[in-house]
């Protein structure tokens, strides 16, 4: 703990600091609570996306056996991404990426030249690609929120466990010192008064 001056000015400074800390702490606690709820929501969303991806991968596995090398190569042509847009949204003061849109190039194919399940495989592959991208964005969101939550928790702990008790202790110490000084001054004044009356 740093050495403090035992003066009225320092007492005012410490009281002002304590007032700032106690006024700012509820805001930090609210932010921490919002971040915790958002992190919990994102973890659930992440798990759901992983489950959906696993389901889609299991679904496409039955089509994979039907693919010959030429058909597999043709499917790749239909998976060319035309546009992938990611925006940002603000969550409790943290900018996090948000998946907005994924568009593929529209390739036309001859319905009679391809197997009848060709469209199903293409649609399933597009879903898998989109889910992988959504999963990547969800992971980035979760990392950003958890990082901010860690920093906010450290600040809350700093205020609750260090700054506020330190300011309260400094105020108490200064008040005791100033009170002792005032009592000593009154005592000196009485002694001086008695001496002047004795003359």
Radius of gyration: 34 Å
* CATH C-level class: Mainly Alpha
Share in helix: over 70%
**Topology as a string of helices (H) and strands (E):** HHEEH
Strands, total number? 2
Output the structural class: mainly alpha
Which CATH-level-2 architecture?
Orthogonal Bundle
Shape: rod-shaped
What does this molecule look like?
The protein is mainly alpha-helical and 199 residues long. The protein has a single domain, classed as Helix Hairpins. The chain is built from 3 helices and 2 strands; from the N terminus they run ααββα. It has a two-stranded antiparallel sheet. A hairpin with a 2-residue loop joins strand 1 and strand 2 (94-104). The longest helix has 81 residues, at 118-198. The radius of gyration is 34 Å and the shape is rod-shaped. The protein starts with 7 loop residues before the first helix and ends with a helix. The mean pLDDT is 83.
Features:
199 residues; mainly alpha; Helix Hairpins; rod-shaped
């Amino acid at each position: 703990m740093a050495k403090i001056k035992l003066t009225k000015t320092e007492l005012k400074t410490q009281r002002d600091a304590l007032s700032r800390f106690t006024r700012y702490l509820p805001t930090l606690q609210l932010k921490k609570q919002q971040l915790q709820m958002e992190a919990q929501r994102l973890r659930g969303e992440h798990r759901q996306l992983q489950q959906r991806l696993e389901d889609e991968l299991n679904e496409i596995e039955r089509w994979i056996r039907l693919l010959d090398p030429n058909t597999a190569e043709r499917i790749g042509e239909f998976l060319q991404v035309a546009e992938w847009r990611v925006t940002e949204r603000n969550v409790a003061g943290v900018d996090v990426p948000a998946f907005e849109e994924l568009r593929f190039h529209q390739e036309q194919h001859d319905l009679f030249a391809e197997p009848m399940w060709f469209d199903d495989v293409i649609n399933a592959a597009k879903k898998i690609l989109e889910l992988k991208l959504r999963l990547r964005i969800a992971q980035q969101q979760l990392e950003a929120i958890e990082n901010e939550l860690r920093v906010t928790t450290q600040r809350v702990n700093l205020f609750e466990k260090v700054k506020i008790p330190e300011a309260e202790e400094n105020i108490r110490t200064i008040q005791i010192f100033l009170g002792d000084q005032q009592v000593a001054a009154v005592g000196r004044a009485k002694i001086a008064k008695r001496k002047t009356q004795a003359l």
